Amino acid sequence: MRLVSTKAETLVPTAAEWQARVDLAAAHRLAVEHGLSEGIFNHFTLAVPGRADRYYQIPFGLHWAEVTASCLMEVGYDGQVLQGNGEVERSGFCIHAPIHRLLPGHACVLHTHMPFASALARLDQPRLEALGQTEIGFLDKIAYDDSFTGIAFDPAEGERLASVLGPDNKVLLMANHGVLVCGQTVAEAYDLLYYFERACQAQLYAMWTGRPLRHVPDAVVARTLRQYSESPVYDGKPACEHHFAALKRLLDRRQPDYAD
Q: How many helices (H) and strands (E) does the chain have?
């Protein structure tokens, strides 16, 4: 099956849809700046607000530094382009469409081969360990896929990944592959993606010293996880929203065309 645009009618987006487009475009641009992208490959997707049958995906062939809010396609769970024009990258559809369909709580799904997470995924028994505060913050929201099956060219692979991830986890470390990070919003998902890479980086740096690793005691891990779950909100919003808003303000100064 070749996934390609049928030149669907273009409709004026609602305010919520346009904001979703702007946020997803910002995430693509930021991933380039933060060294989390691979040119035209990997995939960031977001469920279209108020719709239960489609998600946003960029046309295949765009570099992530070129992505704008208006270029995003609306892709149905059957792979058809419902809004916009361009080709749907096959593995992106096969991974993301089943996850959006089966796990609707994961509105934003970010998949990358970012360096440190991908390096961890290439180790025997790739596990994030309780070595520090950042790593601990992921221990109750990470699942591990230990079965690399090749390139995802069949939606059955996305269904398998959805079953491993489940509705309660936010991060899926994919053995011999990369990482998949989810959130209810782009802000939540990108915040997790950013800090997961930092956590993997810190662990690998510690491992590379060759010295014994200092694990945090279980009781302190449990306490720290409780503290994360009780983290305060500021101005009525969680910290991830403030982080993403700050990143977008910086992006507005350097690359304002992302919001076009």
A: 8, 8
Q: In whole angstroms, give the CA distance from residue 21 to residue 260.
A: 10
Please, where are the H alpha helices in the chain?
Answer: 15-33, 90-102, 115-121, 133-136, 155-165, 186-208, 218-229, 239-254
Summarize pLDDT for 193-216 with one digit per residue, the tens: 999 999 999 999 999 999 999 999
* C-alpha dist (Å) from residue 239 to 127, 163, 244: 26, 29, 9
The gap between the terminal CA atoms of the chain, to the nearest Å, is 32
Cα 219 to Cα 46, 74, 143, distances in angstroms? 37, 46, 22
Low-confidence stretches of the chain (pLDDT beneath 50): 1-2, 4-7
Tell me which residue of 63, 64, 60, 84 sits closest to 74, measured CA to CA: 84
pTM: 0.95
In sequence order, the 6+-apart residues with CB closer than 8 A to the CB of 162 are 98, 99, 102, 103
Short-list 184, 161, 183, CA closest to 173:
161
Residue type at 87 in one-letter notation:
E
Residues sharing a CB contact under 8 Å with residue 253, sequence separation 6 or more, in sequence order: none
Is the Cβ–Cβ distance between 207 and 228 less than 8 Å?
no
Q: Strands 43-47 and 142-145, how do they pair?
A: unpaired
Q: What is the pLDDT of residue 12?
A: 87
- CA gap 130, 246 in Å, rounded: 29
What angle in degrees, to the nearest 10, is found between the helix axes of 90-102 and 155-165? 40
pLDDT tens digits for range 130-149? 999 999 999 999 999 999 99
